[in-house]
Amino acid sequence: MWRSLGVSPEELRCDVTLVCGQSFRWKPIAQNEWRGVISSCVITLRQTAYDVLYRSIPKDDVAPLLRDYFQLHVPLVPLYGQWCQADARFASVAPAFPGLRVLRTDPVECLFSFLCSSANNIPRITRMIDALCRRYGTRLAEVEGTDYHRFPTVYALAAASEEELFALGFGYRARVVVTVARELSERGEEWLYRLRNLPYEEAHDELTTLPGVGHKIADCVCLFSLDKPQAIPVDTHVWQIAQRDYLPELQGRSLTERVYRQIGDHFRARFGEYAGWAHNVLFAAELPAFRRRVLALQRDR
DNA sequence: ACGAATCCTGGGCA
DNA sequence: ATGCCCAGGATTC
After folding, report:
1. What's the CATH number for A74-93+229-301?
2. What is the structure's pLDDT at A179?
3. Which of A81, A236, A260, A266 is deepest in the core (most CB within 10 A)?
4. pLDDT tens, position by position, A82-129
5. Element (H, E) at A182
6. Any idea which nucleotide's C1' is nearest the CA of A238?
């Protein structure tokens, strides 16, 4: 039996939000339906013309969990209005991506997901995370013939062997995952959760003390799981966007630490407190999987 | 401080 | 078929 989340498509659209590389745990199971795991719940979402509906196993009423996960306390429509005012370029792509929110994912899940992201692509990262959960995560339920697992704890990952992860197809990331898991199990998982209470810059710098975590991954974890909406992860796509649309004087330069910071500062100055959310829309418009939407929008004008 | 090579793998492309 | 390039990067030199 479906329950209503009571949120309009302008405030939340699942189609892009769930599969644009913030979380790698959602799978489309039918037209306008997705299934994934949040915490220890297997959740099914259905987008309708007026609302988002949900079902969950085993708990029934996971509305509070979902409202937190989608950060529904943040009104998105006014932010889109503000960003369109601030930037003509944003205004030209935003209509193709209504309701695109930044998720509030679990920090452990977020960190290990992005440790797998280096020199990689979204479909493959999704497969790797899937393998990781199946192998090291607690099994939660079987739904329609598919097993769903909780994301592994750092302690489970710390007990894994590099060889085994390599065999699962992690490549050179196998070592990074195991190393960070062992370091975090010594510091305790709480160390990571406590970063939510620190200012953005401090949380960012703390994260880079972990081996294999540079600016980009630190910013991903800050934005998608640590309540730092001003964090701007500059990946190759954002680097392209910055050179092409915002800071043409950077063309021909390379993405050094200084340049990285300069790009983030530019976005923060332009888009304000929730710059990371705005950046996420521009980023999605750049992904191969969604670029057609932008083209279609521009054709219709 | 900067730039380049290196690391696993899979898909797209010439 | 084969080789090359690139994909949500960090590290080393």
Report:
1. 1.10.1670.10
2. 95
3. A260
4. 999 999 999 999 999 999 999 999 999 999 999 999 989 888 999 999
5. helix A173-187
6. C8
Q: For residue A290, what pLDDT is reported? A: 86
Nearest nucleotide (C1') to alpha carbon of A171 = B8
Asked if A257 and A212 touch (Cβ cutoff 8 Å), the reply is no
Does the CB of A172 fall within 7 Å of any strand C atom? Answer: yes
Mean pLDDT over the full length of chain A: 94
A116 touches strand C (CB under 7 A): no
pLDDT at A204 over 80: yes
Sheet strands (E) in chain A:
3-4, 27-30, 33-38, 41-47, 52-57, 139-143, 146-149
Which bases along strand B come within 7 Å of a protein CB atom?
Answer: 1-4, 7-11
| Nucleic strand B under 7 Å from the C-beta of A120 | yes
User: Whole-model pTM?
Assistant: 0.96
Establish whether the CB of A214 is closer than 7 Å to any nucleic acid atom in strand B. Answer: no
Residue A45 forms beta bridges with which residues? A34, A54
Q: How far is the CA of A224 from the C1' of B12 (A)?
A: 30
Active site residues of A: 216
Q: Which CATH architecture has domain A106-226?
A: Orthogonal Bundle (1.10)
Q: What is the mean pLDDT of residues A169-197?
A: 95
**Residue-level length of chain A:** 301
Domain with residues A1-71, CATH architecture: 2-Layer Sandwich (3.30)
